[in-house]
Specification:
The chain is of the alpha+beta class. It has nine helices and six strands, in the order αααββββααααββαα. Strands 1, 2, 3, 4, 5 and 6 form a six-stranded antiparallel beta sheet that branches. The radius of gyration is 38 Å and the shape is elongated.
């Protein structure tokens, strides 16, 4: 009998499936260098948002990191995952319990006489599952990797919230700049309207030029409420981001005073260890590997040991009687109708999914960095072209204004030049906002200030 018990694990081990390796094509080799080469300078600061040179931007990002509701939810998920890890770790330890049953009874004996008895049986019990084939250790490893993945997800959320706060503040300052530009335009067109009205009343010009001037004034005037509404919506969005009710957002530096950061010197080979979302995918893959080992261990016997010790005490006994027991059991699967194989195949498929998800995370990370590097590079070239266009259109406006005042050209030429200059100035504001936001997105794509 003892020999059969020793041979049982060996016989069942022949039926255990072999662990399959990770699928081919699930790994990624980083490129030697970035596709878009830009001048780079040093690592990313942990508080990279301070590179924009605005204390209010820094304060807003730090407030979002401290009070954002999504980050609070992520922190609670980390606490839950760590608690689940402690649960899984407990599978490797013995369990101890105590019981104290007691009773009081009144019975009738064979002679018809009543008797009363009071009894108690305190008992300590211990149980332990021998993790001979590593199933419980695999479950512990899976829980530990899952907790690490959830913690990495929280870091990714922290980085995302920081980037959203920084880019949202930049957008807010850009809206302020557009509103200031429209107000300046409204003042200049108001002065032009006053002159056109005086000239029309004096009979120097026709009503056509007066109405054209008034139309241009109203065109600029109607854009201001739309910008102010956009500013209010942006402030409300930032208020939600920092975990507060809608309120006005304090400004620091003006939009044109924001500093342009430098491109960090991060190699493609360093990106994998910097990005928290890649770390999350890697830990998730490790968890599926551990789950696969646990599913394989289900094919093998489970060995449980148990022991109990206590005493029986009663008023019918002169002295308490000690009681104890020691036992063990081996539970071996014989026929499960394909359940164990199905669980193992499902765990294998989940591991393969996690492997390709990891590959996708890495490829996405490289793509996001390259996108932002290319955007920063091309927006710089576009800004130079826009500045040259601004100078040319400003000269056109100056000449058109002089020609109109000298009576050599109609007022329509001056209007066209004013429209063109306003469009170029608005495009410059938007382009600068896009370029600063691209730096924010680049810092996020590089993993922030992670080591």
């Amino acid at each position: 009998m003892r020999r059969a018990a020793l041979l049982l694990p060996l016989l069942l081990g022949a039926c255990v499936p072999a662990l399959t390796p990770r699928p081919e094509g699930s790994t990624v080799a980083p490129p030697a260098d970035w596709r878009t080469a830009l001048p780079a300078d040093g690592p990313i600061d942990a508080a990279w948002w301070g590179r924009f040179g605005d204390p209010q931007l820094t304060a807003l990002v730090e407030q979002a990191r401290a009070n954002n509701s999504d980050l609070a939810i992520a922190a609670a998920r980390v606490a839950e995952a760590r608690a689940q890890e402690r649960v899984a770790r407990s599978l490797l330890l013995p369990t101890l319990s105590a019981s104290l049953p007691g009773s009081e009874a009144r019975t009738v004996n064979a002679f018809g006489q009543p008797s009363e008895s009071v009894s108690a049986q305190p008992t300590f019990q211990a149980a332990y599952e021998v993790d001979l084939f590593g199933g419980n250790a695999a479950r512990r490893d899976a829980a530990r990797a899952n907790a690490a993945a959830v913690a990495a997800a929280r870091e990714a959320a922290m980085l995302s919230v920081s980037a959203a706060a920084a880019s949202g503040y930049i957008t807010l300052l850009a809206l302020d700049a557009r509103r200031d530009l429209l107000k300046q335009t409204l003042v200049s067109r108001g002065e032009a309207l006053r002159i056109a009205r005086d000239r029309a009343e004096a009979g120097y010009t026709s009503q056509l030029e007066l109405r054209q001037s008034e139309a241009e004034y109203r065109a600029a005037e109607q854009q201001i409420p739309a910008i102010e509404a956009a500013i209010a919506r942006q402030e409300n969005g930032l208020s939600l981001l920092v975990g507060d009710t809608p309120h006005a957002i304090a400004r620091g530096a003006r939009f044109d005073a924001l500093a342009t950061p430098v491109v960090p010197a991060v190699l493609p080979s360093d990106l994998v260890r910097r990005r928290p979302d890649i770390a999350q995918a890697e830990y998730a893959l490790a968890a599926t590997d551990a789950n696969l080992r646990a599913a394989r261990a289900q094919f093998l016997p489970q060995i449980r040991l148990s022991a109990s010790a206590g005493a029986a005490a009663s008023n019918l006994l002169g002295d308490p009687i000690s009681i104890w027991s020691i036992g063990g059991s081996i539970l071996a699967p014989i026929f499960q109708g394909g359940r164990l194989q199905g669980q193992y195949d499902a765990a294998t498929a989940q591991r393969d999914q996690a492997a390709f998800a990891y590959r996708k995370s890495v490829l996405t990370a490289f793509r996001e960095v390259e996108d932002q590097l290319a955007l920063i590079d091309r927006l710089g070239a576009q800004e130079q072209a826009l500045l040259a266009q601004h100078n040319a259109v400003a000269e056109v406006l100056r000449h058109a204004t002089n020609r109109y005042r000298a009576g050599y050209s109609p007022y329509l030429e001056q209007i066209d030049a004013q429209r063109a200059l306003l469009a170029v100035d608005q495009a410059l504001i938007q382009l600068r906002a896009d370029r600063l936001s691209a730096y924010v997105a680049l810092y996020q794509a590089l993993g922030g200030g992670a080591d």
